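Worked example 3. Consider a protein that binds S-adenosylmethionine.
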Amino acid sequence: MMKMASNKQTSYVFVPGKNWKLSLAEVAAFLETRKCQFKIADLSKSFFTLTIEEALEPSLIGDLGGIIKIGWVMSRLSSETVVNAFLYAKKQAQEEIEEELSTGYVADEAFKASSKKCVFGVSLYFEGRQFLRHAKEMQRFIGNYFKGELASRGVKARFMGFPRNRKLPQLTHVEVLKKGLIEKSAEILFCVGREQTYAAKTMAVHNPFEFQKRDVGRPVQRKIFSMPPRLAKIMVNLSSCALGKVLLDPFCGVGTILQEAMLAKAQVTGIDINPWCVRASCTNLAWLKDEYKIEDGRYRVLLGDSRRLTDKIDVDSVDCVVTEPDLGPALRHIPTESYAQRVADKLKPLYRSFLGEAHRVLKDGGKLVITCPYIRTRSGTFVTLGIEKEAEKTGFSPVYPIGSRIFANETPLTEDLAKMSSFVDIEERHKIGREIHVLQK
Ligand SMILES: C[S@@+](CC[C@H](N)C(=O)[O-])C[C@H]1O[C@@H](n2cnc3c(N)ncnc32)[C@H](O)[C@@H]1O
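Given these inputs, the predicted complex is written out as C-alpha cells:
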C-alpha cells in the first residue's frame, strides 16, 4: 500500500463520500493501524488534506470504502488570494494565482503523461457558500490557465465541460475513470480551504465497478438484508483489521463483511443461525478467493447462535468482531415513535446477549464494530437502541477514531469530531439507517 520515501512530508487531498465524518474516521483508523505518521490539516465536508511521511500508492483507494478521490498536492497558495481573485474580481490576485502555478511547475508535473493532443479535467472543491456563485468561473479560469500552458508546450488541449444542471464544477469519479484522465492526461483538483488553497493532481479514484462486482456480481446475493460492500469495508477498517488478524462476523448473512476482511488479508470466521446463509457465505468466499487470487485466504463459516458465541469460538481468540446483527423488520412506512420504540425494545435482548459474548471472545484491546438500527419516526425524531451503557457495563470502552491527535490544528469542529465513537449512516429516503459503534475490550 505504501512505500517509505525520504523524510520529506507529502500532502494529499482526500475527497470523501457523502458521509464525510465516517470517511475521515476510516482513513484515520486505516493509517493508524499501519503505524503511519500523519496529520490532517484542512478539513471540510468536501475535502481534507493529509500530510504524511510515507508516499501513498494509488492502490490505497481500493483499500478504503469511503474515499472518492485522492490527489497529490503540487502547489499551494493563500486562500485570501483566491478570495480577492474571484469574489472581488481583482486582476492582480488572478495574476498571482497564475504565477504561483507556474513557479510550482504545476503544468509540467500534472501533464507528464500527455501526448500532443489531450483532454483534461478540472474540478473545484471549496469550503464555504461564498464560492458557490463563482465556482464555474473559477473552474474555467484554472482550466484556461492549463490549456494555455499546454499550448505553449505544443500540446493541443481542451478541458472537460459539465452538463448544464450540474451544481458544482466537479467531475465524478466515474467520469474520471471512463475518460481515462489519470492514465492519459490529468484531472486537476483546485481545493479552496479556510486558509490555504491546493492545486492537486488526482492519483486515484474510487472504482464503483469493483465494489458492484462484490455485491451483485458474486454468486449468491440477498438484496434486502445484505450490506453494501463499501460500508462493510469502512467497518472492517474501523476495527483495525489488517494482514494476519483474526476477524469474526457472528451474523454473517451472505458474507459481505467477511469478503472485505479477506481482501485485507485477515483470517476470517463467519457464523449465522441460518444454514442457507452459511452455505451462501462459503460460496461467496470461495468465489472471492479465486476472483481476487487471495492465495493464503483463510476462512471458515459455522452454523451457530451468536447469543452463545462461546459454544463455537474460543475465549480471548479474536482480534476484531465486525457485524450487523439485525436492523429489525423492513418498514413500509415511516413509523410512529411508539412503534419504532417497540421495534427497538424487541431487538435489545439479542444485542445484550451478544455484547457479553463478543467481549468474551475478543482478545484484550480487540475491537468490536457493530451497527444498530437508527429508526426515523413520523415526529422527525430517531429511535436507537442506545447500546452505549450496556456496552460499558459489559466492559467495553468507546473508541474515538477522529481524536484530536490526528489534526494539525484544533478548532471547534475537531473538538466535536474527537468526541465521536459512533457514526450515523442514513439517507433522506431511508426509514431505517445505521448507527455504527466502535468499541474496544
Ligand atoms: C442483517 S443480516 C447480516 C447481513 C450481512 N452483513 C450481509 O451483508 O449479508 C443478520 C444475519 O444474522 C443472522 N442471525 C440472526 N440471529 C442470529 C443469531 N442469534 N445468531 C447468529 N446469526 C443470527 C440472520 O440469519 C442474518 O443472516
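Take a moment to read the result before moving on. Residues 222, 225-227, 250-251, 253-254, 256-257, 271-274, 277, 305-307, 324-327 surround S-adenosylmethionine (CB under 6 Å). The radius of gyration is 24 Å.
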